[in-house]
Amino acid sequence: MTGYPGNPLWGQISICLPGAREVDIVASFVQLSGLDIIQEAIFAALREGAQVRVLVGDYLYISDPAALRRLHGWMQVAQEEFGPSRFEARLVEMQNLPYQPESFHPKAWRILDKSGGMLVIGSSNLSRPALKTGVEWNVVFRAAEDALERSVASAFMNLWGFGTPLTADVTERYATAARKARQVRPVFYS
After folding, report:
1. pTM of the model
2. How many other β-carbons are positioned within 10 Å of the β-carbon of residue 117?
3. How far apart are CA 111 and CA 152, in angstroms?
4. What domains, with CATH codes, occur in the chain?
5. What angle do CA 125, 127, 128 make, to 5 degrees?
6. pLDDT tens across 152-187, in order?
């Protein structure tokens, strides 16, 4: 199990990303501070041939519109440098989920490499506090071709299918909705 201050999640993840062949990340929200932390390692993994997919939500409009714009920018850079579909990011829009949940709180990493890799399931979103300095609980498992890995992969793919690929139009539509929502209910996440 990971947790601040002795064993923040990023310490575990940063070790596994360089040799990854597949990286799937799901978080209920994303902040620029989280992307600042993972950017170098994600692009190092892409240079080594990894496929990376990031899935974040619009729940309560906590995701930072600037972070969504950056993810969209990463998609454009990755396509130019590494080819199509090597880095993809999607937004889960609550209204598009067929089962109409009341919340969206998944947080997991699935990192596969030649030795198996790792699975992380826990409380950390894509923000600096969640990855490095906050009180978070995450359980880290060795990834293997087992029921847990298949279950995480299946759950990710299910949500991925409902996600909207990030485009300039999607990020701006989200930014407008977030601005309106924040006028009613300010967000204090970093």
Report:
1. 0.94
2. 21
3. 11
4. 9-184 (3.30.870.10)
5. 130
6. 999 999 999 999 999 999 999 999 999 999 888 766
